[in-house]
Every structure is written in structure tokens, then in C-alpha cells.
């Protein structure tokens, strides 16, 4: 926007300090650093002048189409005083300095606005332009704008590239060296894909910076072997870290023979990673020094923050907010640490005494207390790791950040997670679904039933079978214990994926073979053939021959080898024979065993890998056939998920997102921290925005009004009590159906008047006869918003015969959701009935999912009943609860998880 252009409309917000707090965000840039983004306010005027003064002449010329050496007072006021509606500006702050500004101004009273931004020369090339464009577009859509226009000098290739690469359809015209660009700002499939790709690259880079430091400072390095600072320093040294280590100790000139510095500021070279091992009350002063030094990442092993109570939480939030605002990421507090086994790094910045063997598994752990045990267990079982992060309180760097990193990390093929809670469950589901297509994710999820207070009023417990299905929907292999996690990880790490569920069993004990077969059937696996028992007298060659024959069989997708050592021949001889037979075949079928009662990968079954750890092709062994088969079953289910069609994330036609969000904002503005049940009129309005129409009804207060409404709606009609409890109680009969005359309507009204004691009733047009279904929406602490489906009625409710999917839904998710309940065959023409219109039912499900994705303030929704008939799907009743969302949704422009977001 050139100087002198003006916007005509100022119908929106007037107070220049009053802007939507949701517009404020911490964002990760392309180099992994962070800045704080917020709308401009008048007190930023001095910062704007300083920012403008740092711009080069070239940058000022490209932005303002002229020299513009200083900002005149009139322009300064115009730039810093905006209404946050028709005139919006964002500043990107690094510490107290403005490093970028983006703004738009509405053109006249129409739906278009002119957009422009400028970035400090020292921060160009970090992705700030695309970040500003995303946030400006989101703010503009909230203000009712639909289109951006921009005028850019043709020679300003960097700015042209920002618009061109944003994923919008940009029209261009050039006149006298000035490009005129126009584009609609509604999200497109391409613009969303561009934003997701940039988010992945930026967040992955920030984790890369953490795991590949060239220098590490240990702040609090101690000469006392009992101190944490001593342990971290020793572990870094003994692991053979390939970078430079700087102990920071105010009292000693050297620690363990390494020169020490009194403060991080005295270190002469840049510091990539600072490990903080000082008491909690000293961490804030340490942060000040690290910020002044320009440290990229702070790893805080110190405890005494959020886990210690409200005061600790307050200190933690202040600490992380300050760090992010100055471009720094934080791991912890209360973290065990991070490690990277790559030979070019060899980083062990943890409290664990030994660097694990190098492998292909990345491990994220929330619990610092369990971290040391996890690393020891991995080593004992022969599971090598690529990287490990124990994030403690997870105030900043989280499991989602690690998923972004591991997606493109060439050294990681398998992801292991120990999670106690999700900071952003919707984002976790999205990232896991994408990553799981190429790399297995195995997760221990504890604390599922510890529901957050924010969810207590709307969260309904989901049965364990559905929880399992929800994790599988996201491509996550869910396990209950760390032992199960390692059991499953051993197969993923060392064996190929099975092509199907057919399992062969070969062994030298019929009893153990039958036990393996029973477990396989219980897990839904298919036996390729009856268990083969070579007998306890069979020698190693005969045993190996039976294994070879089973693997060659086209009926076998995977093999379980069960073995009891005979007295005459050492078991190690059989193990070597097995390994050689498998190696000769070079089969792509996974093999698990119960060999020598070993747990892990015994040396006789191992194929040498890197750093002495067992490599691909090693055969894992389990102490019992049940554990071997249970772990194999999880791998089989994951392989089947990977083979299924992914489906597409569809936006149903006829959705009016902006109108819906305006309705929701209007309703939620005054509820403070409460949830409210919407009035009928608001329910109908909101559903209408998503193309969900409630069967026409009227609210009446007398028999005459009921008759008049029935006449208007046209017979047949139904009369229903307003009280939901009466409508749901067969013994109280709060509903009268198929009323075809005035007399029936009057009689029904009077009957219900006696039952309910209320004058007010519903009169509704009768929907076509069909199967009564339920479509719902609810919050869940593990997955965010869930869409549920089942057949209506007491029996289905009692038996928990409902299926669940996490938002967002693909077309495949919606199609499988309505077919998953045990009673679903009733919809497809059971016993010769005409099938319901499943496509119409699927469409309703997708529209509910879109509503949930766009409006996190919708805390619960019930469409019950939805009449599924050959003519379509008809919503007869709806209930919606709105309130403050439990956490930031995974929609809108890129941003880090809010530092005060609940876990």
C-alpha cells in the first residue's frame, strides 16, 4: 500500500487498544527461531520509528515506492492507531524490538482490502512475510473481508514470491513497473497445504536446532558428584559430544578439567543449547543471561515449577513467554534431557548415565522420572535409538514438535511416545495421521480418565474399543504399558510389515503352539494353518526346515516360532539354525519368537547393526507366546491401516463458515466461563449455516395454536413435550406421532399437557419413516472433538453401541463411522427391508464434523433422532451446548500452542 491511500469504512472496533486476544500468537520461523505476533497499538509508535530507522534505503524504497527516510507524525499516528476491523496491523516482536509489520485497509465499504508488509533487513528470509499474510487473512475473514489486493514494484521479487507461493489464485496486472495483485482469501486446499508444509518445516527446524547443537553450555555445572549439574556435564563428556562444551560455574575456573565461565555471557563463542541445572529461584536470572547471549534453546532440568503448584506454574508461564518472545525454544522445566546418538553429534544432555546404542527409533517421553528407566530398558532389550527427548512439564517443546521433526528425519523410522496428556489433541491427530503413513507411531497414553475440569460438563466416557479405534484412525498403535511399547517396538524396529493377518505357528511344543494359536484368534488374527509341532526330539536342521516351509507358504503373512530348549542339544544351536534359514530366504514376512525365554533380541538371533545394536532382520524374542502374538497383532493392525485408503478431507457444499462463527461469537461473548444450552432458534440458525436442516416445527402454547401450526406444516404431524426428559421416557410418552387430523392434534396436546404440566409444546412435520439414529459431538481429553454415531434408543445407549471418529473427518472416516456399530446392519436392508440412504447419513456426519472444526466453542451437539430412510436423512431434534473452548483448535494461521493452554 503506497502512502496516501485511505480506507473508507470504520464500522468495526474503535478502541485502538481493544483487539481480539486470539489474534496474539507466538510463531516459529523458517530457521526454527520464534517471534511474538500481535496487533499494533498506539504505544508502539516509538518502536515503529526505531524499526523504520533500521530499514535500508532499498527496503524503504520497495515498501513505500520512494525514499521515505522518516515517518511524518501524521503517518505515524495513522500507522499505529487502527480500529482492528477495517484497518488492521500486526507487528512481529523479537524481545522489545519490532522486526516486521503487516497491515490491511478496507477499500470503501466492499469486501476487499489492500494489504502490505515490510520486514527488517536483518530478519528477511525467515518466513515473516508468509506468517504475516496468514494472520492478516485470518483477521480479515473475521471482519467480513473476502479479497486482498496489493500493489508491488515489479522488481520486488521477494514480496511477489510471498503472494505467489501462498497457495491462493492470484490475478496479476502490470502498469509502469507496478504489479497489481488480487486474490480471494478464503482458504483453499492449496493454501492450507502450503501453510501446513511451512509449519512442518519451521517446527522441525526448531527441533533440529535442539538435537544438533554445535555448542552446549551447562549452567550450574558442579564439581560435586551429587549435584545434577555434575551429572549432566559428565554425561556430555563421556558420550563424546562432537561439539564444544562450556561449563558455567561462578566459583571454579574449571570443572572436570574443562575451562569454566562465571556466566554464559562470558563464553566467547555462540551457544546453541544451554542446559540449566540451578535451583528454581535462580532460573529467571539465568534466562536473562541466556537471552542476552542469544542462546537458541534452553533445556531446563530443574524441578519446582508447574508440578509444584500455582506459584511454580506462574513462574513457568512467565519464563516460557519471555523466552519465546526473544526467539528461544524451551525444553522442560523438570526435564530429564535430550540425546542424539548420531556419530556426528553424540549428544547426551540428560541425567541418564549412558548414551544408548544407535538405532532407528525416536522416543518422546513426558515423564522425567521414567526417562532413565526407559533408556535402560531400551538398552537391555537391544532397541537402538536415534533421538530421545524427555520434556518434563512440556511448557514449550511438545510431542507435536517432535512428530514434525521425525517426519523428515532420515535417521528415524519408528516413533515411540509416552504421553500423559495432549496439549493440542487435534493437531496431534492430524500430524500422527500424516506421519503414520510412512513411520509407525507407538504410544503409551496414561491418564485417559483424568478429565480436565473444562471438559467435565460435556465429556462422555468413551469405551475402550472406541478409544482403540480412535487411535487407529490417527495411525497410532496404542499400548497400555511400557512393556507392551517395547514388545511392539522390537517388531517394528527389526522386522518388515506383514501383508495380511494370516499367521503361521511353528514350534517344538504342541502345548505352547496351541497357546499361541488361542491368543492369535482372540486378537482377530487368522491361522494360516494348524500349528506345526516338530516335536521335542527334532534337531536344529529339522526345526529350521519347518520354519523355512512355513515362510515359503503363500498362505503365511507372518510367523510365530515357539521353542522350548530340549535337554540334548543347546538352544543356541537352534537359534542359529533359525537365523540362517530366515537369512537364506530373505523373506519380507515378519517373524517373532519365544526363544530361550529371552526378552529382547538374543545374540544368536541378532543381525549386526550400527553401534553394536541389533539391526534390521534380527528376530525379537518374548518370554511367552501371548506377549509375542499380542505385539504381532498390533503390527498387523497397523499394516492394515496403512493399506486402507486414506480418504479425503472434504468440505461439504453450501457451508457458510463466517456466518456460523459470527453467530457463535455473539452467543459466547457473554457466557464468561460457563457452558449454555442454545435456544431452538439459535440451534436452527447455526445448523442452517452447515446445510443441516431440522424438520420444520413450531412452538405452541395452546390447543388452537397447535391445530393452526399443524395446518401450516401440513399433516401428518407430531406433537412433542418441550422437556427432553419426557420425550426420552417411553413410560411417560412425551411424544405423539402420525397425527393426521385436527381432533388428533387437540387430543394429543391435552394428553401431553396433563403429562408435562406445561402449556408449551412442539408441533413438527412428520419425517419419512426410517431407522432412528443419533449423531453427536463431544469433547475428549485425548482427541479433542469427537463425532459419534449410533442407533437411537435405550438398548443402544446401555450397550454403548456407538462409534467415534476424531475431527477432522475424511470421507472414508464418515463412511466407516456409520457402518461400525453392531446394529448398523439395520440400515442396510436387514431382513429384506429397503436400505436407508447411507450417502445422506454420511453427508450429515461430515457437516457436523465441519461445524466442530470451525467452531471449537461448540462443546456438545446431539442430533437425536435423525431418521434414516430411503428418502434421505432427516433431523427431527437437535441440542447444542456452547462455551469457551477447552484449548486452541488446530485451525487458522500457524502458531505455537498457547503457553497457558490446559493439558
From TrEMBL:
The UniProt record lists the keyword Metal-binding:
no
Q: Which InterPro entries match?
A: Acyl_CoA_acyltransferase, ATP-grasp, ATP_grasp_subdomain_1, CoA-bd, GNAT_dom, NAD(P)-bd_dom_sf, Succ_CoA_lig_flav_dom, Succinyl-CoA_synth-like
What is the protein name stated in its UniProt record?
GNAT family N-acetyltransferase
Annotated N-acetyltransferase domain ranges read 35-190
User: Known PANTHER family for this protein?
Assistant: COA BINDING DOMAIN CONTAINING PROTEIN, PEPTIDYL-LYSINE N-ACETYLTRANSFERASE PATZ
| Positions of the ATP-grasp domain | 684-729
**Which keywords accompany this UniProt record?**
ATP-binding, Nucleotide-binding, Transferase
Organism the protein comes from: Amycolatopsis rhizosphaerae
Q: Which residues form the signal peptide?
A: none
Q: Name one GO molecular function term.
A: ATP binding
Amino acid at each position: 500500500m503506497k502512502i496516501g491511500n485511505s480506507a473508507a469504512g470504520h464500522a468495526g472496533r474503535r478502541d485502538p487498544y481493544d483487539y481480539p486476544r486470539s489474534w496474539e500468537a507466538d510463531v516459529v520461523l523458517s530457521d526454527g527461531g520464534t517471534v511474538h505476533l500481535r496487533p499494533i497499538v498506539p504505544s508502539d509508535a516509538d518502536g515503529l520509528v526505531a524499526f523504520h530507522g533500521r530499514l535500508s534505503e532499498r527496503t524503504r524504497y520497495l515498501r513505500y515506492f520512494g525514499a521515505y527516510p522518516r515517518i511524518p507524525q501524521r503517518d505515524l499516528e495513522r500507522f499505529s492507531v487502527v480500529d482492528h476491523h477495517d484497518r488492521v496491523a500486526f507487528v512481529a516482536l523479537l524481545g522489545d524490538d519490532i522486526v516486521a509489520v503487516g497491515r490491511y485497509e478496507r477499500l470503501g465499504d466492499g469486501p476487499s482490502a489492500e494489504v502490505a508488509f515490510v520486514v527488517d533487513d536483518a530478519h528477511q528470509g525467515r518466513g515473516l512475510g508468509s506468517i504475516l499474510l496468514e494472520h492478516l487473512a485470518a483477521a480479515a475473514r473475521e471482519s467480513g473481508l473476502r479479497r486482498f489486493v496489493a500493489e508491488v514494484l515489479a522488481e520486488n521479487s521477494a514480496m511477489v514470491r510471498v503472494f505467489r507461493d501462498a497457495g491462493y489464485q492470484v490475478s496479476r496486472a502490470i502498469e509502469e513497473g507496478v504489479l497489481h495483485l488480487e486474490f480471494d482469501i478464503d482458504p483453499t486446499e492449496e493454501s492450507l497445504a502450503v501453510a501446513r508444509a511451512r509449519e512442518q518445516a519451521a517446527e522441525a527446524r526448531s527441533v533440529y536446532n535442539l538435537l544438533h547443537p554445535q555448542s552446549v553450555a551447562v549452567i550450574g555445572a558442579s564439581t560435586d558428584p551429587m549435584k545434577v549439574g555434575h551429572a549432566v556435564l559428565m554425561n556430555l563428556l563421556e558420550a563424546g559430544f562432537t561439539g564444544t562444551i562450556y561449563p558455567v560455574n561462578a566459583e571454579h575456573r574449571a570443572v572436570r578439567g574443562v575451562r569454566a565461565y562465571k556466566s554464559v555471557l562470558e563464553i566467547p563463542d555462540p551457544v546453541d543449547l544451554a542446559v540449566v541445572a540451578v535451583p528454581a529461584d535462580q532460573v529467571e536470572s539465568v534466562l536473562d543471561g541466556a537471552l542476552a547471549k542469544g542462546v537458541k534453546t534452553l533445556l531446563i532440568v530443574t524441578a519446582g515449577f508447574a508440578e509444584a503448584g500455582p506459584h511454580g506454574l506462574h513462574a513457568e508461564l512467565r519464563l516460557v513467554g519471555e523466552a519465546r518472545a526473544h526467539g528461544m525454544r524451551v525444553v522442560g522445566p523438570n526435564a530429564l534431557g535430550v540425546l542424539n546418538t548420531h556419530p556426528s553429534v553424540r549428544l547426551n544432555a540428560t541425567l541418564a548415565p549412558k548414551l544408548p546404542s544407535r538405532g532407528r527409533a525416536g522416543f518422546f517421553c513426558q515423564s522425567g522420572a521414567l526417562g532413565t528407566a526407559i533408556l535402560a530398558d531400551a538398552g537391555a532389550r537391544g532397541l537402538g535409538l536415534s533421538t530421545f527427548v524427555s520434556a518434563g512439564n512440556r511448557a514449550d517443546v511438545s510431542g507435536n514438535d517432535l512428530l514434525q521433526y521425525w517426519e523428515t528425519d532420515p535417521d528415524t523410522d519408528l516413533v515411540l511416545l509416552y504421553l500423559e496428556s495432549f496439549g493440542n489433541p487435534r493437531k496431534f491427530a492430524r500430524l500422527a495421521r500424516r506421519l503414520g503413513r510412512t513411520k509407525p507411531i507407538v504410544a503409551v497414553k496414561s491418564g485417559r480418565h483424568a478429565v480436565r475440569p473444562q471438559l467435565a460438563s460435556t465429556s462422555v466416557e468413551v469405551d475402550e474399543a472406541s478409544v482403540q479405534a480412535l487411535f487407529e484412525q490417527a495411525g497410532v498403535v496404542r499400548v497400555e504399558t511400557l512393556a507392551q511399547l517395547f514388545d511392539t517396538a522390537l517388531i517394528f524396529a527389526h522386522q518388515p510389515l506383514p501383508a495380511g493377518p494370516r499367521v503361521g505357528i511353528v514350534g517344538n511344543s504342541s502345548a505352547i503352539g496351541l497357546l499361541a494359536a488361542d491368543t492369535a484368534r482372540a486378537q482377530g488374527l487368522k491361522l494360516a494353518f494348524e500349528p506345526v509341532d516338530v516335536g521335542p526330539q527334532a534337531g536344529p536342521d529339522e526345526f529350521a526346515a519347518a520354519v523355512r516351509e512355513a515362510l515359503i507358504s503363500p498362505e503365511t503373512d507372518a510367523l510365530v516360532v515357539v521353542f522350548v530348549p530340549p535337554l540334548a542339544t543347546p538352544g543356541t544351536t537352534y537359534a542359529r539354525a533359525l537365523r540362517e534359514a530366515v537369512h537364506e530366504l530373505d523373506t519380507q514376512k515378519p517373524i517373532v519368537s519365544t526363544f530361550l525365554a529371552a526378552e529382547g533380541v538374543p545374540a544368536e538371533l541378532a543381525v549386526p547393526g550400527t553401534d553394536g545394536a541389533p539391526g534390521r532382520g534380527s528376530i525379537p524374542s518374548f518370554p511367552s507366546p501371548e506377549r509375542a502374538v499380542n505385539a504381532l497383532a498390533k503390527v498387523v493392525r497397523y499394516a492394515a491401516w496403512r493399506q486402507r485408503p486414506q480418504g479425503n478431507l472434504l468440505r461439504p457444499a453450501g457451508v457458510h463458515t463466517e456466518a456460523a462463527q459470527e453467530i457463535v461469537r455473539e452467543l459466547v461473548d457473554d457466557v464468561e466461563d460457563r457452558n449454555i444450552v442454545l435456544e431452538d432458534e439459535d440451534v436452527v440458525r447455526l445448523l442452517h449455516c452447515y446445510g443441516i436442516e431440522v424438520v420444520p416445527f413450531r412452538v405452541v402454547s395452546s390447543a388452537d395454536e397447535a391445530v393452526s401450526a399443524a395446518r401450516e406444516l401440513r399433516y401428518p404431524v407430531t406433537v412433542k413435550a418441550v422437556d427432553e426428559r419426557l420425550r426420552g421416557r417411553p413410560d411417560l410418552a412425551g411424544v405423539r406421532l402420525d397425527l393426521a387430523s385436527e381432533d388428533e392434534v387437540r387430543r394429543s396436546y391435552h394428553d401431553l399437557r396433563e403429562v408435562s404440566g406445561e402449556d408449551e409444546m412442539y408441533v413438527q412435520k412428520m419425517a419419512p419413516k426410517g431407522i432412528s439414529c443419533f449423531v453427536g459431538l463431544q469433547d475428549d481429553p485425548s482427541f479433542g472433538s469427537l463425532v459419534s454415531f449410533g442407533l437411537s434408543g435405550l438398548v443402544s445407549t446401555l450397550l454403548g453401541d456407538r462409534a467415534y471418529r476424531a475431527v477432522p473427518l475424511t470421507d472414508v472416516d464418515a463412511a466407516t463411522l456409520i457402518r461400525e456399530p453392531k446394529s448398523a446392519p439395520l440400515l442396510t436392508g436387514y431382513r429384506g427391508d429397503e436400505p436407508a440412504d447411507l450417502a445422506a447419513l454420511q453427508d450429515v456426519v461430515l457437516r457436523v464434523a465441519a461445524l466442530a472444526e470451525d467452531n471449537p466453542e461448540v462443546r456438545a451437539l446431539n442430533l437425536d433422532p435423525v431418521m434414516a430412510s430411503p428418502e434421505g436423512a432427516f433431523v427431527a431434534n437437535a441440542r447444542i451446548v456452547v462455551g469457551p473452548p477447552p484449548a486452541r483448535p488446530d485451525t487458522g494461521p500457524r502458531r505455537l500452542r498457547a503457553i497457558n493452554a490446559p493439558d
